[in-house]
Structures are given as C-alpha cells and as structure tokens.
Amino acid sequence: MAVTIKSDREIELMREAGKILAIVHKELEKAIKPGISTKDIDNLGEEIIRSYNCIPSFLNYNGYPASICVSINDEVVHGIPSKERFLMEGDIVSLDAGVIYKGYHSDAARTHGVGEISTQAKKLIEVTRQSFFEGIKYAKEGNHLFEISEAIGRYAESFGYGVVRDLVGHGIGSNLHEDPQIPNFKQRRRGLKLQAGMTLAIEPMINIGRYDVEWLDDDWTVVSEDGSLSAHYENTVLITKGEPELLTMYEE
Ligand code: MF3
Ligand code: CO
Predict the structure, then answer these.
(1) Which of 24, 79, 100, 111 could tie 55 with a disulfide, CB 3.0–4.6 Å?
(2) Cis preceding linkage at 180, omega within 30
C-alpha cells in the first residue's frame, strides 16, 4: 500500500479524532489510582470515546477484545484489560487508545505512574516521552523517515535503555495501520521522503533493560523478555512544511 497524502478535509477530520483522543487520555489519567481494575479503565475509556460519537478502533481489531490497551510494568504493549487485574502503588501503566471519527483514525499512548513510583521508573517514562520529541525534530517535509527513527533510538540508547525492535509506528488515516512502518531505531536505508499531508503514528516503546520482547499465551500481551520495566509514548503527527502538528495533543 502506498503512503497517502491527506486532503484538507481528511486532515480536518483527523484533527477532530485527535482532539477527542487527547481528551480521552486526559480523563483516563485522572482515573489512574491504586486499586482500579484494568477493565474499569477500559470501560471508562470506551464510554468517553462513545460519548463523542466515536468508535474505539482497537475493539475487535484482529480480535483484540477491548478498547484500551492497558500494559503494566514489564508489559510493553497490548495488555488485555481484566476485572481481576488491579493497579498497585508503584506500578507504571501504559494506556494505548485509538478512535475513529467519521471514518478517520487517531492513535496515542501515554505511560503513567501509579501513586509514588521509583526514580528509575520516573526516568524511564520521561526519557521515553522525550525520545518521541527528539524524533519529531526531524518530522518535516523534505526530511527522510530514518532521521526520525535514528533520533528516537539514539536518545533512548544514550541512557542504556533497550529500544523495542519487534514493534514499530505506522502511517494512519482511514485505516489504523497504513504505510510506512516507523521503527524507533537506526535504519540502514533512508526510507521514505516526508511530505506535507502525511499522517504518522510515532510510538517509541522503551525497556529499561534489553530490547528483546516476547508474547504471552493470550497472544496479545507483549512483555520484555528480561522482565524489565517498559514505557510507551505515542502521538498521531501531521507532517507539514514547517513544524509538525501533534494531532493527539492540545492545551485547554
Ligand atoms: N495502538 C496499537 C498501534 O499503535 C494498536 C493496537 S492493536 C490492538 O499499533 F489490537 F490492540 F488494538
Ligand atoms: Co500506533
């Protein structure tokens, strides 16, 4: 599938999808407390998404059974919410969500601490978030995709962290996953040349330890192989001739 350039109308719809998703994340963050079940987080997220007349894009995607991916500690991504799993003081939790507004997608992830967390955990969350911002310094028409990938990886690895290789970011639009794939580490090829109107979900997944991951028997939950903490940060980004527009972030 070719990489698509979105029309002004499509971009307008993606802005709306993004803004709603930013609100979803803001609301979910407030609900993060010791004792809440991961299913309650999922239910709340689905409720908010539907209240804006949006569809939760993850629900039933390739059989995924929930609207919000909730991944705790060594879980990297795609944790499945459960009535029997509760957040505990000191955990870190990654929330990944996607919405569809009038046929257009947005996709974003945040990692939060539950109550008081260790300095180590705080640093991982902050470095993961910052690695995204290091990457998008290169997200501009005329640059090549590899510059984003390399900047994310270089930054995270400078802290000794493992940059997950088996999962990547992606183009996004009328589909959740479109071309191109967007790795978070150094590439041999320069890859795609960026153009205004491309919309990309850029999503570093970073482990404190080694980068290797494995899949649990539920066939969804990805965990770090060495059991180390993992963080995830993602926004849907519009490429322009100047600064990129972060569609899934906004200030009230
Ligand atoms: N947010 C994931 C991504 O960025 C997609 C989740 S897949 C699902 O690619 F099946 F869990 F929904
Ligand atoms: Co994504």
Answers:
(1) 100
(2) yes
Pocket lining: 10 vs ligand 1, CB cutoff 6 Å:
no
Distance (Å) from CA 191 to ligand 1 centroid: 23
CB 237 within 8 A of CB 243: no
Rounded to the nearest 5°, which phi and psi values hold at 185? Answer: -150, 165
| Any atom of ligand 1 within 6 Å of the Cβ of 96 | yes
Three-state DSSP at 160 gives coil
Q: Is 234 annotated as a binding residue?
A: yes
Please state the length of the chain.
252
Where do we find the tokens 């009038």? 102
Q: CA-CA distance, 31 to 173, in Å (whole number)?
A: 29
192 contacts: CB under 8 Å, gap ≥ 6 = 3, 144, 145, 180
Which contiguous run of DSSP H or E holds residue 46?
helix 38-51
The reply to whether 96 sits in an annotated binding site is yes
Q: Where are the domains of the chain?
A: 8-246
pLDDT score at 250 = 79
Burial class (CB in 10 A: 0-12, 13-18, 19+), 68: buried
| Single-letter amino acid code for the residue at 48 | I
pLDDT in tens, 54-104: 999 999 999 999 999 999 999 999 999 999 999 999 999 999 999 999 999
Q: Is 61 near ligand 1, meaning CB less than 6 Å away?
A: yes
Q: Please report, for residues 13, 66, 80, the alpha-carbon distance to residue 38 in angstroms, rounded to integers and kept in the order given.
A: 30, 10, 8
The greatest distance separating any two alpha carbons of the chain, rounded to the nearest whole angstrom, comes to 49
Domain 8-246: top CATH class = alpha beta
Contact 227, 207 (CB under 8 A): no
Q: At what angle do helices 119-136 and 145-157 cross, to 10 degrees?
A: 160
